C-alpha cells in the first residue's frame, strides 16, 4: 500500500515513511491510495476472532504492508493487552436505553480514547526508528488529554524522548497528576507560565527553525498521523461485532468530535464494508463541523474564538482531519483548490459547486450540545439507566437522541466519567465515584520544570537535556 497526499503534490510513500512525518510536502495529509475492501466472508471470519489483537493484526496488515506480519503481530499484542487496558476485550459495552449502547473506548492508562491509538504508536515508533536507525524527540503542547496519553505510551521507550508543554496551574488536579507523576528519564514535562495557546506558539516557534528541528530530530504525535487513524479503524470493527448480533444488522454510530480523527476512522471502516448506516457527528459549542454539515460552509475559527467548555477535549478552532474527508468525496485537485480558498478568504462554501448535491449520500448527520444539554443528559442517563457518562460522551448521547428510529445506536465513550468527576458532580451530586484510584494518582510524587513563556528558554532546555 502506498500513501499519497490529499493535495496530490507529494511522492507516494510507504506506511513506515508516513508514520514518522507530519504534513506532506505540499501541506496535505497522507492517505492510502486505495481503501481495502472487506468481503462478507472476511467479515464473518473477523467476527469469529477471539482477541482484540488478532482483529487488530488483520486490519493493520492491510495498511502497514511494509511491516512483516510476525513483526506486526508483536506490535499489536504489545499494545492491546490487559496490562495496558483494564478489560480483556480492550473496549467495553453497556446499554443506556432501548437500542442505545455506549461503547467504552477509555479503558487505557489515561482513561480517554486517545490511548487506543497512542498505545499502538508507542510500539510502532520504536520499531520504525530502529529499522531506520533514527531517534525522535517529540515536542508537543497539550491542554490535558493528548499529551498525557502520549507520555504514558512513550515512557521508557527506546530512541524516543518526549518534551511536553502544558499550561502551569491550568489543568485539573487529576490531569496534572496523571502527566507529572511519570518519572521515566525520557519524559520531560514543562509547565509553561501561560495558557495553552502560549504552549502551542512555543512549539510552533521551535518547529519554524528548520536547522534546529533537524539537529534535534524534533517530531510530533499529532492527530493527523495516519497510523492513529488506522488504530482507530480497528475498534469500529470490534465495536460492531460487540453491539450487532449478526453481520446482517446495521448500526448507527455517534461520535463526540473535535479534530475529526475519530469519525474519520469510522468513515474509513464503513468504506471498507462495515455495515454502518449513519455516522452522527456531535460537537460542543465549538461547532465548526456541525456548521459545515448543516450549511456546506467550512470556516475555521481563530484560536482566540475557541470557547472553553465542560467537554474540553473537543475545544477546537479547526478540524485537522476534515481535509481527509473532503479528499475522499472530491479528490486531490478540488481539495487543493478548497484549501487555497481557506488561505485567501478564510472559508469555503461547498454549496457553490456540485459536491453538495450528494450531501444525502454521505450518510453523516450532525448536531451540537450546550453545557446545559450535557449536564441534563448526564442526569437523565443516571436516572434512567443508573449509568454515569462523561461530558464528552454526554454530548454524543444528546445529539444522538435526535436520530433514534429503532436501529441500534452506538455512542462512542471517549473518556471515563471519573476523569471529569468535577463536572459530573455538578450534574449528579451524589455520584457514586470510587475516588480511591484518583487519589492514588494525585498522591504520587510529581516531576516537572516550571518555565517562563519564552522560546529562548525552551531552546536552552532542549539543548542541555537532549544533547
Ligand atoms: C480527542 C477527544 C475527542 C475528539 O476526538 P477527535 O478525534 O479529535 O474528533 C473527544 N473526546 C475526548 C475525551 C477526546 O480526548
Question: What ranges have pLDDT less than 50 throughout 5 or more consecutive residues?
Answer: none
Strand content: 15-25%
Give the class-level CATH name of the domain at 92-111 and 226-427: Alpha Beta
Cα radius of gyration in angstroms: 21 Å
What distance lies between the first and last C-alpha atoms, to the nearest angstrom? 37 Å
Bound molecules: pyridoxal-5'-phosphate
The number of helical elements comes to 19
Broad structural category: alpha/beta
Average pLDDT for all residues: 95
CATH architecture of the domain at 92-111 and 226-427: 3-Layer(aba) Sandwich
User: What is the β-strand count?
Assistant: 15
**CATH topology grouping of the domain at 92-111 and 226-427:** Rossmann fold
C-alpha geometry? globular
Entry summary:
By secondary structure, this protein is of the alpha/beta class.
What are the key terms here?
467 residues; alpha/beta; Rossmann fold; 19 helices; binds pyridoxal-5'-phosphate; Thr_synthase-like; Threonine synthase; threonine synthase activity; Thr_synth_N_sf
Fold and architecture overview:
The protein has 467 residues and is of the alpha/beta class. The chain is built from 19 helices and 15 strands. The protein has a six-stranded mixed beta sheet with strand order 3-4-14-9-10-13, with helices on both faces. The protein has a five-stranded parallel beta sheet with strand order 8-5-6-7-15, sandwiched between helices. Strands 1-2 form a two-stranded antiparallel ribbon. Helix 13 (322-330) packs across helix 14 and helix 15 crosses helix 17 (421-427). The radius of gyration is 21 Å and the shape is globular. The model has no long low-confidence stretch (mean pLDDT 95). It binds pyridoxal-5'-phosphate. The site of pyridoxal-5'-phosphate (PLP) has 16 residues, from helix 11. Pyridoxal-5'-phosphate binds at residues 112, 114, 145, 223, 256-262, 313-314, 392, 414-415. Residues 108-308 form the Tryptophan synthase beta chain-like PALP domain. This is Threonine synthase.
